[in-house]
Write a structure and sequence with these properties.
Number of strands: 0
Number of helices: 5
Radius of gyration: 11 Å
Helix content: 55-70%
Structural class: mainly alpha
Distance between the termini: 12 Å
Shape: globular
Order of helices and strands: HHHHH
Length: about 70
C-alpha cells in the first residue's frame, strides 16, 4: 500500500500546534522564512538533513511527518 505524502499539511499543523510562526521555525532551522512557506505551499520539500531537524524539533518520526 502506498501512502500519500502529506508533508505540507502536517508541517503546517505541527507548526501552528506549537504556536510558532514560519519565521520562528526558520530561525530554529537556520533557513529563510520563504523556505518554510514554500514547504507549506507544496512548492518544494526539505532536504533529508532539514527533515531530520524538523522531526527532532517537533518530536515526530519521519513516517508521521510525511504521511
Amino acid at each position: 500500500m502506498i501512502k500519500k505524502i502529506k508533508f505540507a499539511e502536517n508541517l503546517r499543523n505541527l507548526r501552528r500546534g506549537a504556536g510558532i510562526t514560519q519565521k520562528q521555525l526558520a530561525g530554529v532551522l537556520e533557513i529563510d522564512q520563504r523556505t518554510v512557506s514554500a514547504w507549506e505551499n507544496e512548492i518544494c520539500e526539505p532536504s533529508f538533513a532539514l527533515l531530520a531537524k524538523l522531526c527532532e524539533f517537533f518530536g515526530e518520526t519521519f513516517d508521521s511527518i510525511l504521511t
